Amino acid sequence: AGGAEVHPQSTLSPERIATLVAGLIQDPDRLSAMAAAAQSAGKPNAARLLADLTEAIASKKTVSDFRKGTQA
Question: 13: domain range?
Answer without folding.
Answer: 9-41
